[in-house]
Specification:
Blueprint (H helix, E strand, L loop, with lengths): L6 H18 L5 H16 L1 E9 L5 E7 L2 H7 L3 E2 L1 H7 L4 E3 L2 E4 L1 H4 L28 E7 L7 E10 L7 H37 L4 H12 L4 E6 L8 E4 L1 H7 L3 H4 L4 H4 L5 H10 L1 E8 L5 E13 L3 E11 L1 H15 L9 H11 L7 E4 L1 H5 L5 E3 L20 E4 L9 E2 L4 E2 L24 E10 L1 H8 L1 H17 L6 E6 L2 E9 L1 H15 L3 E3 L2 E3 L2 E9 L5 H26 L1
Antiparallel strand pairs: 1-2, 1-7, 2-3, 4-5, 5-6, 6-7, 8-9, 8-12, 10-11, 11-12, 13-15, 14-23, 16-17, 18-20, 18-23, 19-20, 21-22
Length: 576
């Protein structure tokens, strides 16, 4: 730091130090105070790196704030070092008043302890008082009063002048650590005072001055705040709501007092709200505006307790996160949907299919060699076929002679009465197993049909008219497929000109009918840039059944599609 031979430099440094100490008292929360402490070391004391380690309730120290190096900040912020390791460090090296300096000649033994740390690189010192990259300097922060309990430790590194601090620099750092301890204690005190003010408001026993102080802090907060009843018949009813919350929801304060958050929350978020209200903490959910729309908010609840009667009410902070949620949903949609067609992509398809499958089969099915040899066309034609063959094969385990050996009940639920145990972790695992129809004749079994669709004639369109036309065709096919299925069904683009449809609750005949409808919806001409183009579609029907993997299900449907396509090609050659 500054040398003692330059008093005018020390005076300028003192002014900087005075300013950063003043900034400590302007932070609005404990987290802001801790970050201000770290930033002040850089701006007022002339170091390039600073770390604030705060003593937790269990005695260990957590890295609560960091300044000077974003990479190091991301590496160690939030990490914890044991109290034993810190006490060892504060006993080593040289004592500079309350400061503790550990030169690099001693600090090498600390490299492997559990204290979060960063390592800087640099040349070896050329002078006796030059700072070494492995030097360590700690400024403990103690509570004021006679007991002097350890509140935390400020770690500093890399002085800007490259030298170990002299007497003036040491004194400035020690004084700054003392002022930081006071600021941190005051921040904690302010948080405790806020909780006390809420309790006094609820019990109507607060002093008039305290009530006015709380009212102003509550009413003029830039973000939404509310006080809600907790317990009793009026649990959750809003007692007070500030102007920011009223503006956010478009409701006046008098109307807000008629509601609870349960009345305003989106139906899908009720469970999240109840868990948060019961336990305190934070949650992200949607609240209803006056116009009927919903806004995403972050709720942070503090349970204000009465020592005699238990929890009485909640102090809730409501932050508008609509914009962030919109971006998150957009990113999630991009990750799980095809950029061209907007359909679920291959990863999303596999995730949805995997959610319906488990490792325990409802029955073991084995196809004989005659099944593959005797497979007949199921459905689908080329781009310009006028006729559509009658007769449709079922999915996996559908045609020919099958050996079907029952290993579990055929109703889709795993339960073995002889053993008294279910297929899951208990006697009944709660999983409705996916089962597949057996044979080509509809036996009444309803299952999850997997329709693998491959466009016929698409490559020639792409080659002849270009990718722009090909993309337009894919978009239109995706739209027609989506219009041809039910609301709960899934239409996904697997890649290229391949699509997959998941339709639950279908029998063999239902799946065949669906394939016909989808194929007939695809074959009408598609107009692109004034020209009409046509594609056909070949479908293969597979069935998702527990005991199969996702890839096995898709491969089964894919193989049936190609078998149907090859069989149709033979028919065309014979007809020619």
């Amino acid at each position: 730091m500054e040398t003692e031979s330059e008093p005018y430099v020390r005076l300028a440094t003192l002014r900087q130090l005075h300013q950063v100490v003043a900034n400590l008292n302007t932070a609005r929360s404990l987290a802001d105070t801790l970050q201000t402490v770290a930033d002040g070391v850089l701006t007022g004391l002339g170091y390039q790196l600073a770390c604030v380690n705060l003593v937790r309730a269990d005695g260990d120290l957590v890295v609560a704030a960091f300044a000077g190096d974003p990479a190091a900040e991301a590496l160690i912020t939030g990490r914890v070092g044991s109290r034993l390791s810190w006490e060892q460090r504060l006993r080593m090296g040289e004592a500079w008043g309350d400061l503790r300096f550990i030169p690099h000649t001693e600090g090498w033994v600390l490299i492997d302890d559990d204290v979060p740390q960063w390592h800087t690189e640099g040349p070896e010192p050329r002078f006796e008082d030059e700072w070494h990259p492995r030097d360590r300097l700690y400024a403990p922060m103690y509570t004021s009063g006679g007991q002097r309990e350890l509140l935390g430790v400020i770690s500093v590194d890399r002085p800007r002048n490259g030298r170990r601090p002299g007497a003036w620099g040491r004194e400035a750092l020690q004084m700054y650590a003392s002022q930081s301890a006071i600021a941190i204690s005051n921040a904690r005190l302010r948080a405790n005072m806020q909780r006390a003010l809420v309790r006094l408001e609820r019990e109507q026993q607060a002093l008039r001055a305290s009530e006015e102080s709380f009212r102003q802090a509550f009413e003029y907060a830039p973000s939404g705040m509310a006080i809600a009843e907790m317990g009793g018949d009026q649990h959750g009813r809003l007692l007070r709501a500030n102007d920011a919350l009223c503006r956010l929801l478009g409701r006046p304060a008098a109307v807000m007092r008629r509601y609870s958050f349960a009345d305003l929350v989106h139906p899908e978020d009720v469970g999240t709200l109840l868990r948060t209200s019961a336990e305190g903490g934070r949650a992200e959910l949607r609240l209803a505006r006056r116009d009927g729309s919903y806004v995403w908010v972050s709720l942070r609840n503090s349970v204000v307790a009465d020592t005699a009667d238990g929890p009485r009410f909640l102090l809730t902070h409501v932050e508008d996160i609509e914009e962030r949620k919109r971006h998150e949903l957009q990113l999630a949609h991009r990750a799980s949907h095809d950029a061209l067609t907007g359909l679920p992509n291959s990863a999303e398809l596999r995730a949805r299919l995997s959610a319906r499958l488990c490792s325990r089969p409802g029955g073991r099915v084995r196809a004989t060699a005659a099944d593959a040899a005797g497979f007949e066309p199921a459905y689908g034609t080329g781009a310009y076929d006028g006729a559509y063959e009658a007769g449709y094969g079922a999915g996996a385990g559908a045609t020919g002679a099958y050996e079907y050996e029952h290993a579990y009940r055929g109703d889709g639920f795993d339960f073995d009465p002889s053993s008294g145990a279910g297929a899951g972790t208990g006697a009944y695992d709660g999983h409705v197993h996916a089962v597949a129809p057996v044979g080509e004749v509809d036996d009444g079994t309803k299952g999850l049909a997997v329709l693998f669709c491959d466009l016929d004639g698409f490559k020639s369109i792409n080659d002849r008219f270009g990718h722009h036309t090909g993309d337009a065709v894919l978009i239109e096919v995706a739209r027609r497929l989506t219009e041809g299925v039910r609301d709960g069904d899934t239409v996904a683009r697997l890649g290229g000109d391949e699509f997959v449809v998941l339709a639950d609750g279908l029998g063999a005949a239902d799946a065949a009918d669906l394939a016909v409808r989808l194929r007939n919806g695809i074959i009408p001409p598609i107009r692109v840039d004034g020209r009409a183009v046509r594609v056909g579609a070949s479908f293969g029907i597979g069935w998702a059944e527990c005991g199969m993997s996702v890839e096995e299900v898709l491969n089964s449907a894919d193989q049936r599609m190609y078998m149907e396509k090859r069989s149709r090609a033979k028919v065309h050659r014979r007809a020619g």
